[in-house]
Every structure is written in structure tokens, then in C-alpha cells.
């Protein structure tokens, strides 16, 4: 079986451990629901047919939807940026869209700030 990219970084490869109360010093992924699920659900096998990919991604998103650290996972994937797999309920393509929107928003804010400074000067 082929290993997905970054397999050494996947939280799904770590044996499940349940922490009763969230320890703020513990890494966010210690509470990730995907630690108990099949890693293959979150990463595409090679040459996966489109219908199978969409079905697998929806199943992965359902796992993410019930995860207490979904937001932390999503931000991790956006900041890295993780190029493959479902992270924080978003596919790689969806994360690219989010990142593009963030870049546009940052550019607009910088442009607005420059205009405000120029008007004040």
C-alpha cells in the first residue's frame, strides 16, 4: 500500500489516547477525533476515481465536524500550508480558496491603510 504524502506527520498514525480535560500545554492534535479513524479516509490513494474521492472527502468531513479541535486543525493546515488531505473539515482545494481570500483581504486592508495615511498626510 502506498503511503500518503507527509505520512510521518499524520495524527491518524498515532495510537488513540483520550484526555479527559483539555490540557492547555498539550498539542491540539491529542484530542483530534481522526486519531481513532483510518488515515486513508483523510488522504487520497493514487488514481482515485472522482466519485470515490468525493465520497471519501465527505466521510472525512463528517469526522471533522464532530472534532473538538477542528478549528485548530484547520488553522494548522492553512498556516503550514498542508498540500494534501482533509484537515479541519477542508480539502486541499478548499484550503487554497481560503488562503487566496485571506491574501486578497490582506491586500485590500493594506491598500486601505495606505490610502488613509496618504489622506491624513
UniProtKB/TrEMBL annotation:
Subcellular location, in the record's words?
Answer: Cytoplasm
Instruction: Write out the residues that bind [4Fe-4S] cluster.
Output: 34, 64, 67, 73
UniProt keyword Disulfide bond, yes or no: yes
| Major localization class | cytoplasm
Name the Pfam families for this protein: Whib
Keywords of this protein's UniProt record, alphabetized? Answer: 4Fe-4S, Cytoplasm, Disulfide bond, DNA-binding, Iron, Iron-sulfur, Metal-binding, Transcription, Transcription regulation
Q: Where is this region: Disordered?
A: 1-26
InterPro entries for the chain: 4FE4S_WBL, Whib
Cofactor-binding details, from the entry: Binds 1 [4Fe-4S] cluster per subunit. Following nitrosylation of the [4Fe-4S] cluster binds 1 [4Fe-8(NO)] cluster per subunit.
Q: What residue stretch is flagged as signal peptide?
A: none
Q: Which residues form the 4Fe-4S Wbl-type domain?
A: 33-97
Record PTM: Upon Fe-S cluster removal intramolecular disulfide bonds are formed.
Q: Where is the composition biased (Polar residues)?
A: 1-10
| Reported cofactor(s) | [4Fe-4S] cluster
- Note whether Ligase occurs among the keywords: no
**Family matches, as PANTHER family:** TRANSCRIPTIONAL REGULATOR WHID-RELATED
Family the entry assigns? Belongs to the WhiB family.
* Function noted in UniProt: Acts as a transcriptional regulator. Probably redox-responsive. The apo- but not holo-form probably binds DNA.
The protein in question is named Transcriptional regulator WhiB
Gene that this sequence comes from: whiB
